[in-house]
Specification:
This protein is α/β, with parallel strands linked by helices. It has helices at about 5-10, 10-15, 35-40, 45-60, 100-105, 110-115, 135-140, 150-155, 155-160, 175-180, 415-420, 425-445, 450-460; strands spanning about 120-125, 130-135, 145, 185-190, 200-205, 210-215, 215-220, 225-235, 240-245, 245-250, 255-265, 270, 275-280, 285-295, 295-300, 305, 310-320, 325-330, 330-335, 340-350, 355-365, 370-380, 385-395, 400-410. Strands 3, 4, 6, 7, 9, 10, 12, 13, 15, 16, 18, 19, 21 and 23 form a 14-stranded mixed sheet that branches. Strands 2-1-5-8-11-14-17-20-22-24 form a ten-stranded mixed sheet. A hairpin with a 2-residue loop joins strand 1 (about 120-125) and strand 2 (about 130-135).
Amino acid sequence: MSDDTIFGSLNRNVFDEANPSPYTEGVERGVSEKLIRQISKDKNEPEWMLEHRLKSLKIFLEKPMPQWGADLSTLNLDDIIYYARSGAVETDDWAEVPEDIRKVYDRLGIPEAERRMLAGVGAQYESEMVYHNLKKQWEDLGVVFLDMDDAVHSHPEIVREHFMKCVPSNDHKFAALHGAVWSGGTFLYVPEGVKVEEPLQAYFRMNAKNMGQFEHTLIIVEAGADVHYIEGCSAPKYGSQALHAGLVEIFVKEGAKARYSSVENWSRDTYNLNTKRAIIQKDGVMEWIGGNMGSGVTMLYPCSVLAGEGARCDHMAIAFANEGQWQDTGAKMIHAAPHTSSNVISKSISKGGGCSVYRGLLSIAPNAHDCTSSVECDALLLDEMSRTDTIPDIKIRNNDVTIAHEAKVGRLSAEDIFYLTSRGIPEEEARAMIVNGFIEPIVRQLPLEYAVEMNRLIELEMEGSVG
């Protein structure tokens, strides 16, 4: 199957089409101690995890809603379904996944991508994983790639040592909510010195109306190891609220390298309030590659704690805000050790009255000498109605550093559009070509299949952009 076959006919219906969801009939809405205990009982969790959930619930109920960033005043947390089981049993055989669920992922090209270029893949539907598989060659080298629920039982010591240690429940209200109701997600462990040459991927799909999804991703890359992990996600459009508050924790040990790529394409109904953080030890390397579009409201600021001497982090991201969207995204770089370096390239596109905000933190500790950091924010406005803001927070506690911050805002060049249209290219296509050129430095960091998908998603957002 060619890339054109997978993505050439991609349209919004691929993501917005929903399956029937009888499993949500009569399901409790809102969050309560009763629900938390039911989740833990269903998963047969150890006592320490139930205690963690209950403690997180208490923190969630006590913490106020964020009063900064995107407007969350219309989010009705009591109308969200926090836990729903589709009835599918997890399997490592794609043919055993229920046909209606399998068709969703087939439309998105996930099984085809697995066969062609992935070392392993997981698929989550609503609150639980329905499929997980890892190629035997990596399993034989000690790589562990599991559903997070399974990892709690099969690798209890490793999970307990790392679970929500990177992002504690008291970090903010939605981290606490996640700690209380999390379900599903990915556990990825790469042993010392193992370099996984093919990406691993998980795809998260919300299906039901008013659904919430709270997958937990825990990645541990031991000394000298190397891995690339990809997450994708989507949800249908109903015209009523949905909530995504997943959490990603990445531990990069000495001399290790991790790349985390994500294409988040939730529906306009979705509040995407995700939290991602990595702790990088001595000479470790962390790379974030991200694309955010689709959701009505996004608040997402992947954080990198450069904890070891010589640690490095690169962050490259795209945000696309169309009509009715507020994309509040950015990056947090915390230099906590000497000789560390970070590089942030953020690009945003605003169209149809949408708003894109870059909200970033750069913090350099008093002992973090000889650090370098560069932050580059480029924003593209496609019309007079749209908006973009850059809100940097820079905290430097010593003088032995090299820091650069640059922010630019531009519009589509009339000269460039005229040149392309004079060569016979329709104006709408010309505008899309310029936008694709603008984001190309980031898209090219994605594996081919995902770069093609990202470009096609941008084209979908650009449709009807003339005038």
